[in-house]
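Changelog-adjacent note: as of this version, every example in the card shows the full chain rather than a window. The one below runs 169 residues end to end.
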Amino acid sequence: MKPWPLFWRRALKASHVTLSAAWLGAAVCLVLLSLPGPSEVGDGVRGITFCMTLIDDFVIIPTASAVVGTGVLYGFYTKWGFIRFRWVLVKWVSTLAFISFGALLLGPWIERMNRLAAASGAHAFALPEYQAARWAVVIWGAIQTVALGGLVFVSIYKPWGQRGKPRKK
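Full-length structure tokens:
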């Protein structure tokens, strides 16, 4: 397809970068909120898990979806394409894997924590099921957040060249 004019390419880039930053920032917030702390007493457990659910449902899911949308536009209307460059292919595969992992595992763990906290209040923190879900969010959420941050560096440094062309030595 014909590339967009410079103004629209810059607007697309600004949107893509802003949405990616929002996704990464929200992921950091989720990991920090899932860490143990003073929220383990009283209604703090319910409040924290409710906030985590809100961040997941109203920030992470929409921004991750919009990142894919702007990425599709990038693929069609810029020189980068979808699989023309190795680093773009890595970003596509990683982004789709992160979204799948979040939808299939991280999101349900957060929902489980929220349900248990809503049903048991401060006592939820003592439940093994709550602890298992919380530590899964802490560990796997941190891994995914670091990997998301890695994609930022891939975007900036574009470490791999065009597919099908020999590398210069």
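Structural remarks: The chain is about 75% helix and 0% strand.
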